[in-house]
From TrEMBL:
The protein's name in its UniProt record: Dipeptidase
Top-level EC class: hydrolase
GO molecular function: dipeptidase activity
Lineage of producing organism: Bacteria, Pseudomonadati, Bacteroidota, Cytophagia, Cytophagales
Protein source organism: Reichenbachiella carrageenanivorans
Pfam families: M20_dimer, Peptidase_M20
CDD domains: M20_dipept_like
Keywords associated with the record: Dipeptidase, Hydrolase, Metal-binding, Protease
Superkingdom of source: Bacteria
EC code(s) of this entry: 3.4.13.-
PANTHER family: BETA-ALA-HIS DIPEPTIDASE, SUCCINYL-DIAMINOPIMELATE DESUCCINYLASE
Domain Peptidase M20 dimerisation: 192-350
SUPFAM superfamilies: Zn-dependent exopeptidases
Length: 453
């Protein structure tokens, strides 16, 4: 394909444009960045226009805008709907970055910036793959793009947009580049995503902070109590103790687990990369199973009392925690949210008042491998990487994937190229220049093979 040569000869410009996008701090969680989030949307809209779409527009929501663009070449041709997100996670804590998060740099062939991989770098590969196909007259399917600005805060308004615009979004397949591969030597494709239920816990004890000597030992400490409550949620086998939590969990057959175990996974390298001496999780499951097919409960943040310099002797009045559970197929996120909320409130001892407030959630998804879309993607990997991708169940969540299945009746092809070492959501997020360019090529091949199906 001529497009492949085009990608190689435009490599520097493709990188420069991504850098311009990475310089826009489109943090969806923090209203301080609202203007930047909008600027990122405008930026992408303009790039779609330059790349040759029929039309590109911003759809306003009660939150951040959705960028929609399309190129309908021939209504009788198959249509690909691309989903991605232009918002990013907060870059905090800034002091842990080796270079500023919104001033992208290349070091050791990797692009360092917030959003380099999740998801600006991966989303922008689609803009450039489309441009390459258009410029060389090689696009033989129709393409629609829906790029949102609220993925990192739970896609609050995207669900309504999808339900209200089914005709606009009509397509034969959905393609998403927002996941990873096992390694550059061993490409893989995500066939499972976990669901999510996220809650916040408030524990209130005495009506004010107290002197920890005058009152300590006589009045219950909300932080101590919160810790007790949290540690009671997981037993010594790594099982979650909330009654009913596992009731609907879909267990895999021995054959399915054996198939999963074929994926090459190096536990020693995994521990080394994370700087840990041992892994920890539910008894009876491998690390890949703990990530891919088992539900979890984690504290994401915990605070209260005095955390300033030096020591202050205080028995705090309040304690807080943010808790998330990752869910697997058949668990229902609102049901689990209710279950977790009721349970945590029910185990509150008499000396504190406990309130649990739900945040966002989303459903798990499994992606079938016997579809035209999956086969075309698999062929694209063989073409671009010289290897067939291994199907993998990921631990992360993209709740819109289950909603696409439900509302549009469409499965998503997860054509992601990130690596664990890209450190998404962490300081020093990165994305390999190789993966960026190879990703653009792979998407290009996907279009070709999907239209030949
Ligand atoms: N791209 C990630 C999800 C992901 C990462 C899936 C790696 C598979 C492998 C996405 O941007 C994300 O971070 N999602 C959130 C969920 C959302 C509801 C806030 C997550 O998984 O925490
Ligand atoms: Mn993402
Ligand atoms: Mn993310």
């Amino acid at each position: 394909m001529k497009s492949i040569n085009y990608i190689q000869s435009n490599k520097q410009r493709f990188l420069d444009e991504l850098f311009d996008l990475l310089r826009i701090p489109s943090v969806s969680a923090d209203s301080k960045f609202d203007k930047d989030v909008r600027n990122a949307a405008e930026f992408i809209k303009e790039k779609f226009e330059n790349a040759g779409v029929d039309k590109a527009q911003l759809f306003e929501t009660a939150g951040h805008p959705i960028v929609f663009a399309e190129k309908i070449i021939d209504p009788t041709w198959p249509t690909v709907l691309v989903y991605g997100h232009y918002d990013v996670q907060p870059a905090d804590p800034y002091e842990l970055w080796d270079s500023p998060p919104f001033e992208p740099v290349i070091k050791n062939e990797k692009i360092y910036a917030r959003g380099a991989c999740d998801d600006k770098g991966q989303m922008y590969m689609h803009v450039k793959a489309f441009e390459s196909m258009m410029a060389n007259n090689e696009l033989s399917c129709n393409v629609k793009f829906m790029i949102e600005g609220e993925e990192e805060v739970g896609s609050k308004h995207l669900g309504d947009f999808v339900k209200a615009n089914k005709e606009l979004l009509k397509a034969d397949v959905i393609v998403i580049s927002d996941t990873g591969i096992l390694s550059n030597d061993c490409p893989s494709m995500t066939v499972g995503l976990r669901g999510l239920s996220y809650l916040e816990v408030e524990v209130v004890g005495p009506n004010r902070d107290l002197h920890s000597g005058m009152y300590g030992g006589a009045v219950g400490n909300p932080i101590n109590t919160l810790c007790d409550m949290i540690s009671s949620l997981i037993d010594d086998k790594g099982c979650i103790t909330i009654p009913g939590f596992y009731d609907k969990v879909l267990e895999l057959t021995a054959a399915e687990r054996a198939a999963m175990a074929k994926a090459p996974f190096d536990l020693e390298a995994y521990k080394k990369e994370l700087g840990i001496d041992a892994v920890k999780g539910e008894d009876g499951y491998t690390t890949l199973e703990r990530i891919g097919i088992r539900p979890t409960l984690d504290v994401n943040g915990i605070w209260g009392g005095y955390i300033g310099q030096g020591a202050k002797t205080v028995l705090p009045s309040k304690a807080y925690a943010k808790i998330s559970t990752r869910l697997v197929p058949n668990q229902d996120s609102s049901e689990i949210t209710q279950l977790v909320k009721n349970h945590i409130e029910s185990i509150a001892p008499a000396h504190v008042k406990v309130t649990v407030t739900p945040h966002h959630g989303g459903e798990a998804a499994v992606i079938p491998t016997d579809s035209d879309g999956f086969r075309a993607a698999s062929k694209a990997f063989v073409q671009a990487w010289g290897k067939e991708p291994i199907p993998m169940r990921d631990g992360g969540s993209i709740p819109i994937v289950a909603l696409f299945q439900k509302e549009l009746g469409l499965d998503s092809v997860m054509l992601g190229f990130g690596l664990d070492e890209d450190a998404i959501h962490s300081p020093n997020e990165s994305y390999g220049v190789f993966n960026y360019i190879k990703g653009i090529e792979t998407i290009t091949w996907f279009y070709k093979f999907f239209s030949e199906k």
